[in-house]
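I hope you will forgive my troubling you with a question about protein structure. The matter concerns a single protein, recorded as an amino acid sequence and a row of backbone structure tokens. Please examine both parts with care and let me know of anything in them that strikes you as inconsistent. Thank you for your consideration; the sequence and its tokens are set out here:
***
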Amino acid sequence: MTTSLQIFNNFKKFLIEIGELSYFAGRFFKEVFTKPFEFKELLRQCYNMGNRSLLLVSITGFILGLVFTLQSRPTLMEFGAESWMPSMVSISIVREIGPVIIALICAGKISSGIGAELGSMRVTEQIDAMEVSGTNPFKFLVVTRIMAATLMIPLLIIYGDAIALFGSALIENLKGDVSFQLYFNKVFDAIKFSDIIPATVKTFFFGFAIGLVGSFKGYNCTNGTVGVGEASNSAVVYTSLLLFVIDFIAVFVSDIFFEL
């Protein structure tokens, strides 16, 4: 009986949080089109998110290309199909592996950072002070961060995909004696617009989810400094789960439209 009641309470709490997150997202769409527009803060957030994540995305993409090629090459060699390596790697990275892996990395970096930053401002009453002074903290703090994440995550993912393809080309050059020019010629021959467009569109939703969940958790932080850590941790967990849900929906929808 106690276990059933606990499950019911957890499910009820989850539904309430989904409702609060939906209301939070609705407030964002209302505020984003109203004046004043905080362009300077938006540019600052874009620079911070992109600059601070660039090295991490570079290392992740490069290792992703290296490992994926090294793991796939022996299997393709057994069937004498190593010439298919550029096509297989490029389509896999551009369509699915690159966007998801790099989005998860950015969720751990950016979403947790937003949650911790806004959570610290909430518990130290800086947000309350902004409201008292007549400033709209939601507009200045939340809208700018969600917009910055929505704009920067696609750029980081495209950059990470390019680095991953370079890492794959490096392995093919060293192990298979394939020139970079030949490798990338095969890559561009294999990739079509039906691969690039859905993969690019869903990265904007990834960025929106990363910014939204991190801002929601930080802006509504409670329980003092302990709550800051909880907000940062839960932001990563919820964002990672939401990214997989968005990815499934994006793949399902793109399969319907591009198979017609």
Notes: The radius of gyration is 21 Å. The helical segments are 2-31, 39-78, 85-123, 126-132, 137-175, 180-190, 193-219, 224-258. The CA atoms of residues 147 and 208 lie 7 Å apart. The chain has a mean pLDDT of 86.
